[in-house]
Predict the 3D structure of the following.
Amino acid sequence: MMSSTSFSQEKIFLPPPKKSKFSLDEALDVRKSIRDYPSLPLTLEGVSNLLWAGYGKNRWGRKTVPSAGALYPIFLYIVVGEVEGLDKGIYLYNSGEHTLTKLSSEDTRFQLARASLNQRWVKTAPLLIIISADFSITTSHYGKRGVRYVWMEIGYVSQNIYLEATALKLATVAVGAFYDEEVKEILNIKKEPLLIMPVGRPKEGRW
């Protein structure tokens, strides 16, 4: 486990998300899982849009996904490898402020790839989005039924990220095969990791 001394708690304000002219119908039509990414960095603006689409706030002050009882038990962490304007490390997304809190300066993609049954795209993607949840937030209100509601919400979040990545002409894939406790230890988190979404630029000719 990483030592607490590596955690800086630095806050980074993300640029406002830019609305794409890429239609929802187009995104649904061409969306696909892509696992191969060239060694090209992402932009900070692109990361901002992905996080906003996944779990940000819309014009009504509500999140971009529904949540049972408006409890919102999801937490988005990112591991940055190559993003223009962001140092390598682990960050937590704060949707209320549309900010990132830097938790560590360690690039843990290699360790996370090993914990993900050696899926190389976890290691080679310039960005990893880890969708995690605190089930107790929902189950304390809905009991065991709340587990189902959390998993439904995870689906909404991951699909939004997929579609936004498509609109930005980026590539991603939902990775669910990993050792939960190893991922928690690598990231030094207590929330339950449920999906890892590597994001990168697609190889030439993918779009």
Remarks:
- Residues 1-6 have pLDDT under 50 and may be disordered.
